[in-house]
Amino acid sequence: MREVLAGTVTCHTEEELARKLARGNPLRVKLGVDPSSADLHLGHAVQLRFLRRMQDLGHQAVLIIGEATAMVGDPSGKDKTRPQLSRDDVRRNADTYLAQAALVLDMERLEIVPNSRWFDGMGFMDAVRLGASMTVARMLERDTFATRYKRGAPIGIHEFIYPLMQARDSVEVRADMEIGGTDQTFNLLVGRDLMRDAGLEPQVCVTLPILTGLDGVQKMSKSLGNAIGLTDSPRDMFGKAMSVPDAQMAEWFHLVAGLAPERVDELLAGSAREAKGALARRVVELYHGSQAGQLAAEEFDRIFRDKGLPDDIPESDLPGELVGDDGVWVVKALTHLELAPSSSAARRLIREGGVRVDGEKVGDEQRRLERGANCLLQVGKRRFHRVRVP
RNA sequence: GGGGGAAUGCCCGAGUGGUUAAUGGGGACGGGCUGUAAACCCGUUGGCUUUGCCUACGCAGGUUCAAAUCCUGCUUCCCCCA
Q: Which segments in chain A show pLDDT lower than 70?
């Protein structure tokens, strides 16, 4: 029991969990994921890691791929309506999603179920019946709906359906436990109601903490640009982890590092710089192996402490059409390489002294790279690109 | 079904006929400081080979020498009444 609940926020209810565990059968632990975006980040990993722990404790993990629900869009924690995705988007996302989940879960012992399996077959009247199991008043109790309603922001009817669909999944897979972030509490609890209605023993609902993003303020989310993706390169992971605010370190250690609590206390008691280095290294190790962690740490020191160069600077040849008699205009090179979004922006960067060629600041917006040159472009402190001019 | 209000740049939000890519804040980016932290300081933040030109204030038209600002229609959202 203690092992199961370590690191969780709430559990509805602990008594029921104890009862289920006491029977000695493996629990069916459900996690629903909406492949609304293809990339998983450390925030998702908090839940995946919990699921993995349950697997290691001998329980059956059930991963629901929300093919149907993703097309509706989960209103949780959103202050506006989410876009609805097409089936193709969803399918495509689901594949990459699973590949990334494999970084954490034991895929051999994972039950993967798309919820389109039952929703595709449902008729309109079935959906109406599903709707009858919930009241508007209860929906409006929800924080996200309440605030949106009060503020006069739109709420689509389909958004009321979402929790019911998620709950229906629990009935279909006969979940013993469903896990989710704390923002999922309501959705998880609806699952209990529907299971009871269906004559099943209600699932236990376990909520997990929501990881704060790199900005230290908002929850980690790709669209907010404050996320570390599970497939980020070791260097990016390390660098991003180093930029986590100090105040967030303890949280990150607990939620993403998976280190022994004594070790965490020890690190936090020491120098902040060292502790964060250990955290960053740990993150890389988890997803790229211990050697990568070591290398990333060394490289980081070299680039940022010793102001050196990274190992693998991307290289490319500039296309011939950019080359004039006097070579390639730096501004064009920057936009072509996507080191700047537009040539106006590239000019600005030059003006601000943020562009270097072979380590030297470019002072002239008209600066060219000579024909046949092979030089190192740098934008800001961390973006490098080596180019050959034909 | 009737009445009223709103729509501005990445976001929030000023601006209600004329020195204007459009006050302010947030975010982001660049520079300085540093531990790629925080705090702080400075700068930038529509596009274009940029003394200039082009495109922008929901969409489409119109009035005017001149419109984000006025008029008409449309779209979307909100509120009140039914």
A: 36-38, 71-86, 143-144, 146-157, 223
A369 DSSP β-pair partners: A328
- Distance in angstroms, CA of A150 to C1' of B15? 28
Whole-number Cα distances in Å, A255 to A63, A122, A339, A386: 21, 39, 33, 37
- Nucleotide nearest residue A273, measured CA to C1': B35
pLDDT for the residue A122 = 84
Cβ of residue A300 lies below 7 Å from strand B = yes
Name the residue type at position A240: K
A172 touches strand B (CB under 7 A): no
Q: Give the pLDDT of residue A79.
A: 47
DSSP character at residue A8: -
Please, what is the end-to-end C-alpha distance for chain A in angstroms? 66
Tokens of A333: 């090179």
A258: which residues sit within 8 A by CB, 6+ positions away?
A: A49, A282, A286
What pLDDT does residue A55 have? Answer: 93
DSSP symbols for A107-156: GGGEEEEETHHHHTT--HHHHHHHHTTS-HHHHHHSHHHHHHHHHT----
What is the DSSP secondary-structure string of A42-104? HHHHHHHHHHHHHHHTT-EEEEEE-HHHHTT---TT-SSPPPPPPHHHHHHHHHHHHHHHTTT
Of A142, A140, A187, nearest to A33 (Cα)? A187
ipTM score for this prediction: 0.82
Cβ–Cβ under 8 Å, residues A38 and A92: yes
The CA-atom distances, in angstroms, between A114 and each of A33, A50, A80, A188, A234 are 10, 21, 26, 18, 32
- Distance, Å, A128 CA → B76 C1': 28
Q: What is the pLDDT of residue A304?
A: 77
A329 touches strand B (CB under 7 A): yes
Q: Which nucleotides of B are covered by protein (CB under 7 A)?
A: 27-31, 34-38, 43-50, 77-79
According to the model, what pLDDT value does residue A323 have? 83
Q: Which residues in 206-265 of chain A line strand B, with CB less than 7 A from it?
A: 215-216, 225, 235, 238-239, 242-246
What strands lie across the sheet with A177-181, from one edge to the other?
A10-12, A204-208, A177-181, A28-33, A60-65, A110-114
